[in-house]
């Protein structure tokens, strides 16, 4: 199928950190310029919660409480992305998932038919383990969609502000 635009559907991976909010601002500006459909996904990492339970760092009740807290954090970050998009006249569809982060993001990208995944700058690699277990790194490597890693905070903040 031939499409009119190179990028029609953009997915923002929201981690709840400054880098992912910067990526969201970039993706919102891109969606506005390209008249694209915007999706934001936040995933509660239940694999880590299960690992903490198995290691007896958490008891089951603590795990459930922490999971609820993470879900609420996710909803709050997704609402913030919706507000950022709304300020530029863009509608953002949000998705709160649970599971192993990279699997859920890649699965959601396929489900939506994403043309581009936008995410914040990858963290510094301090060991080989970081390369294999960092969720952003795994999304970058396993996604079938192109992945855009956002950098240059000052320029993006200024561009977003000028569009608002």
What does this structure look like?
The protein is an alpha/beta fold and 164 residues long. It has a single domain, classed as Rossmann fold (3-Layer(aba) Sandwich), CATH 3.40.50.620. It is 55% helix and 19% strand. The chain contains 7 helices and 5 strands; from the N terminus they run βαβααβαβααβα. The protein has a 5-stranded parallel sheet, with helices on both faces. Helix 1 links the parallel strand 1 and strand 2 (37-45).
Would you spell out the secondary-structure blueprint of this structure?
Elements: E1 9-13, H1 18-34, E2 37-45, H2 46-54, H3 60-87, E3 92-99, H4 101-112, E4 116-120, H5 128-133, H6 135-142, E5 147-150, H7 153-163
Parallel strand pairs: 1-2, 1-4, 2-3, 4-5
